[in-house]
Amino acid sequence: MAEAAKHGATPFEGDGKRVLLVLGSPKPGGFCHAVADAYAHGARAKGHVVHTLKLGEMNFDPVLRGGYELGQTLEPDVLEAQRQIHWAQHIAFVYPVWWGGLPALLQGFFDRVLQPGFAFRYRSMESREFEPLLGGRSADLLVSHDQTHWHYRLRQGAPAHRQMTRCILAPCGIALHHLEEFSPVRGSGEEQRQGWLRRAEQLGTQV
């Protein structure tokens, strides 16, 4: 559930740019949580208002069981996520890459939340082209994985990056601002990780 909802705060209060931080790791802790905290700290230091969605704490079915044609009841946390996305001017997604792609929970979040009529609509019954409905927003992607940059991008083709930028953000009208990789996490030392967290905080100041 969104922090604003849990703490009773209205999602329209405060000054500065409205930033939504989506933590896409289902794990209750770990490096992605530290990255998200550092990013939020940097953004708040610049006077921006930051709300957070922690997908691991949300209560929704991540499986789009009947496709968009049959419809599926939107749980309160899905409706709250849509409200937060509508509120936001900038969205930061923090997530790990697993098996080369997005964690299943994050994929399910997109399947359920980015509904036709909310994030996009088809231009016509015959057309396969999308009309984006979330234009005017920007996004940062802060991504951790265990491959070297060379191996993930050149050998594997960076499928998660391509899906996020070309198949999710662009069709919805959200402009990519930064894509930052923290890798390889496995085997990294404390000094390296602290450097990555400083970089995440710096990105938060550049919203």
Automatic annotation (TrEMBL):
SUPFAM superfamilies linked to this entry: Flavoproteins (SSF52218)
Classification via Gene3D superfamilies: 3.40.50.360
Keyword set, alphabetical order: Oxidoreductase
Record Pfam families: Flavodoxin_2 (PF02525)
InterPro entries linked to this entry: Flavodoxin_fold, Flavoprotein-like_sf, NAD(P)H_dehydrogenase_qn
GO molecular function list: NAD(P)H dehydrogenase (quinone) activity
Domain Flavodoxin-like fold: 17-175
Top-level division of the source organism's lineage: Bacteria
GO cellular component, one term: cytosol
Entry keyword annotation includes Oxidoreductase: yes
Family: Belongs to the NAD(P)H dehydrogenase (quinone) family.
Protein name: NAD(P)H-dependent oxidoreductase
